[in-house]
Amino acid sequence: MDYLEIESEIEARKGLAEGIRRKMADYEKSINRISKSLFDLSINGTIPRASVLHLMLGAAQCVNQVVRIMEEARDLSEKCVMMPEGGFWQGNLDNTLATLHCRINVVAMLLKEQKPCKSDTTMWAECDELMQYSSLEENVGHIANIVMKWITRVRDTIGLIEGNMHDAAAKAKLLDRVLDEYKGDGGKEAFALLLDDIDSQTLVQICTLNPELRMVMLFGNDHAALMDNLIKAGCKENQLMTVVVFMRMIKQVYGRKTLSFGETELVASEGEDIDRRFRYAIQNVIDEELIKFGYDWTWIELYCEGAIKNVQFGNPKSFLDYLSMMGLESLPNRSTLSRKADVVKGEYPNWTFLDTNNSAEINRRKRVVGRFIFHYNKFSRV
Predict the structure, then answer these.
(1) By CB atoms within 10 Å of each CB, which of 40, 155, 197, 245 scores lowest?
(2) Beta carbons of 281 and 287 less than 8 angstroms apart
(3) Which residues, at least 6 apart from 313, have a Cβ–Cβ distance to it below 8 Å?
(4) Those residues with Cβ within 8 angstroms of residue 328's Cβ, 6 or more apart along the chain or in another chain
(5) Crossing angle for the helix pair 140-165 and 128-138, nearest 10 degrees?
(6) pLDDT, tens digit, for every residue of 311-327?
(7) Could you tell me the CA-to-CA distances from 355 to 151, 251, 341, 348 in Å, in that order?
(8) What residues are paired with 345 via a beta bridge?
(9) CA-CA distance, 286 to 288, in Å (whole number)?
């Protein structure tokens, strides 16, 4: 996935959001009109059941459609890394629905207190439709309760959508996928794209990231802190490519440094200290969600075969037995590790792989080992 593909995907989501917003705006106008009519009825003394029924059926139709549109918005909110430009609806939809709920409830209560006036339906017996309508009039309070339940459902979904769009941890995982798949051009071209895409608001958002957030961008497995910062800054999906290109450029710069100066050897240790360090490092690698596939344990096993002298990691079985002794579960079988061990050539960190030439995948595999080394050596400083 390159710059244009990601940009195209973001543009497509923007189009879907615009469609949702347009449909929602039409029904919101109808809801406001019905809500006003219900209010007018509630202050006019005696309330005609026929008028209430007409408005309740209109409200039911509108709210039912909003329920359907809201499900579309919820699905899209789970796929968007940032909020689409313009959002999913205009104004305060939740407040509009809350007002409608309140006015339906008021009218329903007034009808309940009002002395029923049973109309003469003798002639209506000749027309099934009129008899059904008469039955609906008598049950208008029940219809009101159903519509209010639907409104509550819509408002709950609004809360879920807002939660989705402000869940920094979940959005960070989506951003990770974008970064994992992103294959841009060289540094100069990326910088030109950055200049073309950036606007003043985005520039402020990017340049005000503090050093801690930049470290998260470079070395954190998830970018929850970064996403939290961008969400609060009001960053939109159409500005996301600026963030992606910026992060890629920073990673290129720091990537050269980390390859040259990053730790490639474990500190000297022995006995129980090895076990404690190993357990700590493995747990952190798991917590950082670096083990994407069962065979990712292969990279740590191959590195440890030569790096930990006092523990026998001569083959996948002994390594898996050691992990089991550490209390790890859901481990792959030894054939999984053996197959992947055969594709690795050279010595870490200069490994090459026979099964892939994808630079992102190669760096991902090496990163598993790099983070293991980092946490193993860091243990004494914790």
Answers:
(1) 40
(2) no
(3) 301, 304, 305, 319, 322
(4) 282
(5) 70
(6) 666 778 888 888 888 88
(7) 54, 25, 11, 17
(8) 352
(9) 5
CB under 8 A, 24+ apart: contacts of 303-308: 303/348, 303/369, 303/372, 303/373, 307/265, 307/266, 308/266, 308/274, 308/278
Amino acid (1-letter code) at residue 144: A
CB 307 within 8 A of CB 299: no
Q: Tokens representing 160?
A: 């879920």
pLDDT value of position 252: 53
Cα within 13 Å of Cα(319), Cβ side: 27
Find, among 134, 133, 143, the residue nearest to 111 by Cα.
143
pLDDT tens profile 174-229? 887 777 676 655 444 444 444 444 444 444 455 555 554 444 444 444 467 677 77
How many CB atoms are located within 10 Å of the residue 200 CB? 7
Report pTM. 0.53
Tell me if residue 236 falls in helix, strand or coil. Answer: strand
Contact (Cβ atoms closer than 8 angstroms) between residue 190 and residue 248: yes
What residues pair up with 344 in beta bridges, in sequence order?
Answer: 353
The pair of structure tokens assigned to 308 is: 């930990």
Tokens standing for residue 299 = 């990279």
Give me the residue label for tokens 């029940």: 142
Pick from 213, 202, 171, 237: nearest CA to 14: 237
Residue with tokens 């917590």: 287
- 240-249 CB burial, b ≥16 within 10 A, e <16: bbbbbbbbbb
Q: What are phi and psi of 269, to 5 degrees?
A: -155, 165
Q: Is 327 exposed, middle or buried (0-12, 13-18, 19+ CB in 10 A)?
A: exposed
Pair of tokens at residue 284: 């952190």
pLDDT, tens digit (0-9, with 9 covering 90-100), for 81-123: 888 888 888 878 999 999 999 999 998 888 887 765 555 455 4
Tokens, residue 275: 């076990």
The span from the first CA to the last CA of the chain, in angstroms, equals 39
φ and ψ of 344, to 5 deg:
-95, 130
